[in-house]
Design a protein that fits this description.
The structure holds 2 protein chains of 2 kinds. Chain A is built from 10 helices and 12 strands. Chain A is an alpha/beta fold. In chain A, helix 5 packs parallel to helix 6. Chain A starts with a strand and ends in a 5-residue tail after the last strand. By secondary structure, chain B is of the alpha/beta class. Helix content of chain B is 33%, strand content 26%. In chain B, a hairpin with a 2-residue loop joins strand 4 and strand 5. In chain B, helix 5 crosses helix 7. The longest helix of chain B has 16 residues. The chains are: A alpha/beta, B alpha/beta. At the A-B interface, helix 6, helix 7, helix 8 and helix 9 of A face helix 8, helix 9, helix 10 and helix 11 of B.
Chain lengths: 314, 294
């Protein structure tokens, strides 16, 4: 097991109280596995991604452990976490447009960055990786502003994975890109995994169709909790959790027309995480909810091997 | 109803406007009453510029846009017929004021002496399936993105408009609420509202629209009935776009190579030729080209 997260709780401190953005989530990611993390805005997927590498000042580690390659990550301690960043855990930020230093040529910036981590830059390796994502080697002599959005995104991907991290977190990296660029970036990610540059990956996006294309396992989150986690084809073809079912049925696909098949959304909106409701957090919007849902919180149960569902009716 | 004829927009760029950039180049199409036309293109294809020109927010360099035969003349009368809703509902509102101020401003500007105004507001909110108690007298930050976006559509409905320009209105919304906004547009179509649905998301455009216009670098590469453009794409660019759309249940595949003339293979643009009834594809019309070989 490359990554094992056990009962992780991360809250946000606000003036009104603690927002329970991530409230007891447990899962594991195997070696060479791409885990797709999907859910609505505010479900805690970004909090989870940030929690694994760097918490910002408002975030507070309440409980739970994160174990990577048998070592427990000190995720609540910013300074002690520093040696792990970039070496063991790395991140591809969403806004690659602003991720690179605009005043340095890219090659120089990469050199400085790697040196700051106490590693000598291996130019040949860097060139090989540029080839891997089909970027010309000349980009190293250019400024970030000279690259297109898709090229910048791929460049940042190369930089993030340069030290062969065990875990790579990709947070909404394609949401600002066009479909054809999105495809190229997503395929490059899979290429990194296949080439062994990264051991495992967490791919965060709100677009389940895109996650399906590259992830081995998909985890659907709702209001800071795990709703369902299963192999990608299982979650798309036979979801068990009512939220996952509704979410997948609400996606329009090429070929589906309003006139032929009217899709429907999920009524209502996610609960406030300042004071989350008792029991199952989805019950207000759930068509299957019954008395037990309000009383007791459904645990994530392994209904089949590698298929976890947190629902009393699943 | 709305007709665009050979619309071109050239922007002046550079320090002293010394260079020009053609954002939209000779685009012609029309939107009928009660029809949804989706305008699909990647970033930089000029789709938003076209929307802004229809709304009179940007001037045309050449060509003409007419509504029921009369040219676009931005002003109160024109905006009684045409309204726009934009991408980011959170920045469309003034956060200092309550969200329903947008409805009150419509009354002050257009209907100062309508006695049954509250009934009309309720009717418009019902049409966009909002519960008045949930949205009236609230600040923008208290409402969800989907509610704010629907409130803007309700505002447009109060004016009894003929055409709605919807520019990427669902791209900031969650999957679970996005489809409700789309269904709403489809319902409004039944009341005779024409919608120009501008998007980069092919599956959303396909879900809603009767006709589709695919733009690339400011020119139309393919347009026609949605089932023909999506069911039997002729232009290589359309095929490439369609093959890049992630789909549930089927992995990505490479685009099938296009038949037809060499110019098609290179994916270039040219004048539009009719490939089929209600289906047009850009073709350069080279000497050795027999038109789109469909």
């Amino acid at each position: 097991m490359s990554l094992t997260v056990t009962d992780l709780k991360v809250y946000y401190r606000t003036l009104k109280g603690e927002v329970k953005a991530l409230d007891g989530i447990s899962f594991s990611v195997a070696d060479n596995e791409i885990l797709g993390l999907a859910g609505e805005s505010g479900c805690g997927k970004t909090t989870l991604g940030k929690g694994l590498i760097r918490m910002d000042g408002r975030m507070k580690h309440i409980g739970g452990t994160v174990e990577l390659d048998g070592e427990t990550l000190p995720i609540g301690d910013d300074a002690r976490m520093n040696p792990y960043r970039f070496h063991k855990v790395s991140l591809i930020p969403q806004y690659s447009m602003s991720a690179m230093n605009p005043t340095r040529k890219i090659g120089k910036m990469v050199g400085e960055l790697v040196r700051s981590r106490g590693v000598k830059l291996d130019r040949d390796e860097l060139h090989a990786r540029l080839d891997q994502v089909s970027l010309p080697r000349e980009v190293l002599d250019r400024y970030p502003i000279e690259l297109s959005g898709g090229m910048k995104q791929r460049m940042v991907m190369v930089i993030s994975t340069l030290l062969n991290p065990s875990l790579l977190i990709a947070d909404e990296i394609t949401s600002a890109l066009d479909v054809s660029t999105q495809k190229a970036v997503a395929k490059a990610l899979v290429g990194f995994r296949d080439a062994g540059f990264v051991k495992s990956m967490i791919f965060i996006t709100h677009d389940i169709s895109l996650t399906y294309q590259i992830a081995d396992t998909i985890m659907v989150m709702y209001a800071g909790k795990l709703a369902e986690k299963a192999p990608a084809h299982t979650i798309v073809s036979a979801p068990r959790h009512p939220y996952a079912q509704l979410l997948i049925n609400s996606l329009p696909e090429v070929g589906v027309r309003y006139a032929d098949k009217r899709l429907s959304g999920i009524p209502g909106s996610p609960p406030s995480l300042l004071d989350p409701p008792s029991g199952c957090r989805f019950r207000d919007r759930c068509p299957l909810a019954f008395a037990k849902c309000a009383e007791e919180e459904p645990p994530a149960v392994e209904v089949e091997p590698d298929h976890f569902v947190a629902c009393w009716k699943a | 109803m709305l007709e665009l004829h050979d619309v071109t927009k050239v922007y002046k760029v550079g320090a002293f406007g010394g260079k020009t950039m053609t954002a939209v180049d000779g685009v012609s199409f029309d939107v009928g009453t009660g029809e949804v036309v989706s305008l699909i293109g990647e970033s930089g294809s000029g789709k938003t510029t076209i929307g802004r020109m229809i709304l009179g927010l940007t001037s045309l360099t050449s060509g003409s846009i007419t509504l029921d035969g009369a040219p676009v003349k931005p002003g109160k009368a024109y905006y009684r017929s045409v309204q726009g809703v934009f991408q980011d509902p959170f920045s469309s509102y003034n956060p200092v004021f309550k969200a329903d101020r947008v409805l009150r401003m419509i009354k002050e500007q257009y209907f100062p002496s309508v006695p049954d105004w509250d009934d009309r507001v309720e009717e418009a909110l019902a049409a966009v399936r909002l519960n008045p108690g949930q949205v009236l007298d609230k600040f923008p930050h208290q409402l969800s993105g989907g509610q704010l976006q629907r409130l803007l559509i309700a505002r447009a409905l109060l004016l009894e408009i003929k055409l709605l320009v919807a520019d990427e209105i669902t791209s900031m919304l969650d999957a679970s609420t996005r489809i409700d906004v789309l269904n709403l547009l489809a319902d409004l179509k039944a009341r005779g509202l024409g919608v120009l649905y501008i998007t980069h998301d092919l599956s959303l455009g396909n879900y809603l629209a009767e006709r589709t216009v695919v733009l690339r670098h400011g020119t139309v590469v393919e347009m026609g009935l949605t089932e023909k453009v999506f069911g039997d794409p002729l232009h290589p660019y359309t095929r490439q776009l369609l093959s890049a759309v992630p789909r549930l249940g089927s992995p990505w595949e490479e685009a099938a190579p296009a038949d037809g003339c060499l110019y098609h293979q290179k994916g270039a643009t040219g004048r539009l030729l009719a490939a089929d009834e209600g289906h047009f594809v850009a073709c350069a019309g080279l000497d050795d080209c027999g038109g789109p070989a469909a």
